[in-house]
């Protein structure tokens, strides 16, 4: 009996397989939320209803960003609606950029370093440390710094000056 060995399928299963058309996706916007409903087939070839809910927010953006948003789409996305297409655009997480150099910040940091250099100034050697911590404190450097060096003056007397020996005032 070959007829009994055959497995008969239900007419409802055949109708479901024959109706291969999917309903069109719908978008409903209300109360600051956008609900997108679409239908697709999963791995087991069964119809699946996918509902995506988006919260609509308004942001103030720079003019250059607003101009870029109005650019015409190209390539495979030329026929898409304005805004990102969730099927081709994947946003994983916010990425914060670190700029390698910023001229304004460099100038501010240079000015800050210059002001810090002038905070500590030694009275003895004019170095960038406090006078208490001066390595020349109590040495001959301190005494030599205080005396100005006189300019060379022409000698009125004809007697040569001998260096290194004491000359009493009466002999001068």
UniProtKB/TrEMBL annotation:
One annotated GO molecular function: translation initiation factor activity
Keyword Cell wall biogenesis/degradation carried by entry: no
Keywords, alphabetical: Initiation factor, Protein biosynthesis
Keyword Protein biosynthesis included in the entry's annotation: yes
Domain Eukaryotic translation initiation factor 3 subunit G N-terminal: residue ranges: 27-139
Region (Disordered): 1-28, 143-172
Alphabetized Pfam families for the sequence: eIF3g (PF12353)
Annotated InterPro entries: eIF3g_N
Protein name in UniProt: Eukaryotic translation initiation factor 3 subunit G
Organism: Culex pipiens (House mosquito)
